[in-house]
Known about the structure:
The structure holds two protein chains of two kinds.
Chain A: H1 3-9, H2 32-46, H3 52-60, H4 64-69, H5 72-86, H6 92-111
Chain B: H1 23-37, H2 43-55, H3 58-70, H4 72-80, H5 82-88, E1 98-103, E2 108-113, H6 122-125, H7 130-133, H8 135-140, H9 145-151, E3 161-166, E4 171-176, H10 188-192, H11 197-201
Parallel strand pairs in B: 1-4, 2-3
Helix pairs in contact in B: 3-4, 4-5
Amino acid sequence: MSPSENLVRRLPNDIGGLAAEPVQRVEHELEPWEKRCHALADVLDFHKIINTEEKRRGVEALGAEMVGKLTYYERWIVAFANILFQKGVLTPGELARKMDEVEARWSASTESE
Amino acid sequence: MSPHDHDHDHAHAEIAPSERPGYYDIMETAVRELLIDKGLFGADEIRRQIEVLDSRTPALGAKVVARAWIDPDFRARLLANGRAACEELGISFYDDTQLIVLENTETVHNLIVCTLCSCYPRPVLGLPPDWYKNKPYRARAVIEPRAVLAEFGTVIPDGVEIRVSDSTAMVRFLVLPRRPDGTDAYDEEQLAALVTRDAMIGVVPASIAAGRS
């Protein structure tokens, strides 16, 4: 099968049955933002804003390269942002401005120490 | 080589409290605050859910397994409806998922996986380990379970059937391991201490040696 046919047959998440490396029994304690991201996912689901299956498809829609290069919760938060744009809940400009504000707040808090 | 052979388990940088928050950390804060500002949910709901997540550990699943080992009626109810039986023990399900409990026997060994992502019985086991979410386990568990089990030091005799159950967004699985031999005199609490997270995923048996100290 050609590499392009592989892309058609299997989306990035669809890896069941493929050959892969031995299992490395890795674990890590979640970083604070990762735990917040998980809680955010649950709350979005409770309120029927983004459900589990929408989240999974949102991660898949990031494409193979991002799925490969971002970590687990990085994929989640980027997928949430994209889904919220698609649903018209947030706009990209709004998020960009808020991210600048959050970063500026952090800078101000460290300067005042 | 397929385009997604790249492994997903990147090392995480050491985070000191004063370190500049990363791009995705900032994005999470920004998304959350915008949604709270719009009145879609309250900040208290996120805090409460973090507490719920922190309260879920494999000790809950171990309690369920130990009860099933000593109480045949409970075991029957657990196998008939996993969620209802867990709720009977006071374990609430904070989501819409159903739970199917898979019983290991002399002739069947069960293993759970989520090939598409990371679905896992979180209400009873907490959050899954990274290896459960990474490519090698997800890709291979369904096609060469005996080889995967061997990497966990688990050798299942050829005469025992291995059943691999692939989780979905709505249906989650929990393995009911076999009660170890030599535990007739154990009480429920002692039995629960023998039941590890990995035994309830199905990658190792419950054993006296492997029990939590």
